[in-house]
Every structure is written in C-alpha cells, then in structure tokens.
Predict the 3D structure of the following.
Amino acid sequence: MKQVIVVRSDLKMGKGKTAAQVAHAALDAAEGARRRNPGWYDAWREQGQAKVVVKVEGEEELLDLQRQARALGLPVSLIQDRGLTQLEPGTTTCLGVGPAPSGEVDKVTGKLKLL
C-alpha cells in the first residue's frame, strides 16, 4: 500500500509552499480513501503510511493522471491553491493518489521521476 503525491514542477514553488501543497494532497486523498475504502486506508496506516512525491511538467499532465487514477477507482485529490502567497487563486498545484495497493498506484504514477 502506498500514496503518491504528484507535484507540478513548472510552477517553481518555494520549498515551504511545495511542502504545504503536498501535505494538503496527502491528507485530502487519505481522508477520501478512509471514507470510500476503509480497508485500503487501514492497511496503509498499519504498513507505515508509505508516501512518494514525484513531479510532472504541467497542469495537463496532472489532469491526465487524475483521469487515469479515477478510471482505476483510486482515491484522488486535486489541489488548487487559494492564491494568498506565491500563486494565483485557483492554480492547480498537485495531485494525491491513494492510499491504495502499490501495483494499482504504479499503473498511474510508476514512470514519474521523484521530486
């Protein structure tokens, strides 16, 4: 079991901003899994809550990954910034996928490079 957070590298967010956006995606996707697939959520928690952070070059790639994950029935969370600091309001920053079985998550995110 694992969770993958996909971050847009084209936005050139600062380290703190990136960390906050990743945290939003991780928490929101995990909460979605807890509600819709508690077995996956519980197994992920029991196994140490594995998380991997990867990158894409832009919004279209991020949205395509969201479509793929949804088609597989995976928990997903698309994060849009409120625009209070570095980004314009509504900027899509990252995508949380899982927690779910590693093999299923890898079908969507397995070829992406680590952030």
The chain has four helices and five strands. Helices lie at 15-36, 38-46, 59-71, 102-109. Residues 15-36 form the longest helix (22 residues).
